[in-house]
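ugh ok so i messed up the first submission bc i forgot one of the chains. this is the corrected input, ALL of the components this time, i swear. 989 residues overall. if the numbers dont match what u have on ur side tell me asap before i send this to the collaborators (the ones from the other lab, u know who)
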Amino acid sequence: MSKKKEKGLYLSDRPPLTPLKAVLLTISYVLLFFYVFVVVWPLAQIVFSSFNGSQTQYIRIGGSYAFSLKHFKYLFEETYFLNWVVNTIVIAVATALLTLLFVSFTGYAYSRYRFKGRKASLMAIMLIQTIPSFVGIAAFYTMHSIISAVIPGFSRQMFLVLIYAGGGIASNTFILKGYIDSISTELDDAARIDGCGNLQVYRLVIMPIVRPMLAIIALWSFIGPFLDYMLPSILLSDPKQYTLATGLYTLITDVRNMHQPVFAAGGLLTALPIIILFIALQNQLVSGLASGAVKG
Amino acid sequence: MRYGTTIVDDIGNEHPRRNLRLADMGVLEERLASEPKENVAEIRSELRSLARGNHDYEKSLADVRAEEKSFLAKAPERKKDFEKALTDSDDKIRTWNLGAMESAVRAEFYERHLELSYDFELLAKKHRMLAEQLPEIANKRRKTLDELHEVTGELERAKKRDQTQAVADFRQYRESRLKQRDEEKSHLKKLHKEGQISSKAFANEKRARDLAAAEDIRSKKQLLPLDMLTDRVRYLKHRLRHDEKQAMTVLHSDIADLRRKTPIEISKRFPWVSYLTIPIPGLGQLMLGQRIKSIFFFIGTLYAYLIAIPYALGRGNYRGQGVFGLVSLAEGASRLDRSVIFMIEGVIAIILLMIAFLIFYQSFRDVRKNEKRMIQGIRINNWFETRTAASRSGFPYFASAPSALITLFIVLLPIAVTVLISFTNYDPSHQSKFNWIGLANYKQIFLGQGIAGGPFWLITGWTLIWTLVATSLAIFIGFALALLVNQDRVYGKRFFRTIYLLPWAVPAFITIMFFSIMFSPDGPLTNLLQQLTGEIINVKNSPWGTRIVLILLQGWLGSSYVFLLCTGILQSIPGDLYEAANIDGATGFQQTRHITIPILLFQTAPLMIGQYTFNFNNFSIIYLFNGGGPFEPSKYGNLAGSSDLLISYIYKLTVQKQFQGIGAAITMIVSLVLIFFTWIGFSRSKSFKEEKL
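and heres the new structure output, hopefully the right one now
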């Protein structure tokens, strides 16, 4: 310290940097920037290849580069990309709304009411939550043909929405219940004294407070269909009905239809809005996941 | 059950019997138990005669009932008289006043016969109350109506008057107030520029000024004559509706209160109606006088007899035969009648039957409870009381019913079907028709026999290796990055955080597919590897190459989430811990080891366990990267590849190769193991131990 004082006033809170620490810090920076490279390089490849006009069916590296939008053009004109986008968004929105509707009721009921069979059904919910969603794959296809025989307009996409929403009820009920538990019941009592009914208490008192958690639940239910490949690949057979995941996959598996750069373009367009969403809401998304798991 | 000499009402007070016949019978029955045997025959015959209704009390009661009948028959005549006395023109007020006058007369009538029956006492009290309260309610409405009339008139007059002056005044006020607000804001801006207040305080204060100004302007606007009167009219109209609703609720609760305090006497001693209602829910409720409630149960009856039972017997099925389909599995039926349809419809039939059974049972229980209460002396709920009780204690059931139904049919039904399929020989040669084969599938799996069961243990081994190594790698990378980024002296934390978030934010299927492209023969990364090592390494053709790349890729993908989580926790560790450690002379490394890492591990443990189960079931990365390949027919047979996990193997068996039976059996094993581990984790968790469910 005294040495520093001679040169000028040392103002930092931290102890001065020793040579060993300086070395360690340098190593840290090297590691951090190396990992930045590891993360960015593959993602940058997606961006480059989607704009590289000199590649046709396959993606090469180190080849010539010519900026062009032809892959995007192909994506919109030769594939069902727009259909896939619309399908995915419709499925995602419907899933999110349906989940919110179901979960609002159950989360509120389980948190605020003591009724017969409550504990037993909570246990059941716990166990159902752990059963993976793939368990039913053998039955889904036939179930759909039975339901659509009874309800003629019942499309495969609607069934997909029901599976997503139904599968999410158990875990999301638990998350929301835990969140509502943390709200003081005195607020409810006050509202009840003022003459609110069951639903009014939820709508006017509870819902405004749990809105952040509802938003997280809605967001995760919304993102789910964007990320899932398995269920749509089982249920949807017509390429026009595909979601983004199943649709884009056809661009790199089918030899006749192989267009890797076009896949990169589609992937870029799909990823961008989700990346922006994640970066903007990263704290809420992480805390939502965390609370769900801690409660579980 | 004996009659006894007293009865008990709903709040537990004892009342003497007023039905003298039953009271006498009660006395006789008590004597029967205590007196010597020689009197028994005599008492018995007396009891029998009483049971037939031979008692003076019955005669006097019948007289009063006849009187009551003629009295009630005269009600229309009385109504005409009352109407002459009415002066008010409002319909509701007229009805209430009429009701009050009639109630007064009735109360007087019943009060003359109080000692005869508790029913009369209840009626007397009820009508007395109506006679008192209805006029009050009517008066209140009259007052509000008068006021409304007056205010409406005032509003009309105000509309005709010139309002320009008032409006101009208001506008002037608004402008001056907005000006004042802007001045305040510019002052704040100056303060902010000079550095006297922080940006956050500046934003908050600006918002506060906006709100204050808006509030002032709104309250000033409400003082404008037209606005004020319009508001007043709206308020009074609301009060008309609201007051009436409230008054009726109070009235009904008061009546319910009377009903609770006044017992009921019936000669029934055995709850036979409840047994009568077992086959027909709703009948018993109707017989006990709960008419509206019985309608709901009758709907349940219709459901049971028109939907559930016919469906279970095979009527109205899509193709199957109801529950019988579970036994026959479409044996001998036409080619289109596939066994799996019969199986699913059998399960649906069982679910429908279970719901029907629940309705039957609930109805029986409901009637039996009410009948027993009536025998005891308690009046059962009328519709108002039922509705109130249902909205309070029934709410959770109504609220979760839709979710329960969806879960039943979308989640539990497929699970049940999978369980059943695992006991059948549903395979490529039995696609249309299959049979029950007991535990043969499970045997094949455990012994590793057959085409489908053969590779089971190999795949299980790789699945376990994959789960442990890939998840641990991701956790390690995420941990390390979080520790590195969150060092004191590292700058650009925000930049690193945003970059490291990317693998999580980009939909995984896109990155996996893209890596798959890059590792394909002649793909960019294959070329890169060739330049680095000088050999042609085709990752996708080498089992261990694929496996290692998959693990690295999952490390890349999964570390992001762990990193974010750890960063969040690191930021929430209180700084005093480190300060204290510093004072005690701990080095940076010691601080990390003894403060940071324990807190981090402790707080993230449940989520990390979640990461392991996630990877155990991580279908997309395996399937989308290399389709589970490369194939090694000598070891794995034709159905699985060397990087297949159990889940992708199940997918291939069930969806692609049509070995649904074995696939279902593997699914069952996997699910049971997962449930078991989750259950262990859960039963050790805090919320379970503290019974805080």
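quick check: Chain B touches chain A through 99 residues (CB under 8 Å). that seems consistent at least. The two ends of chain B are 42 Å apart (CA to CA).
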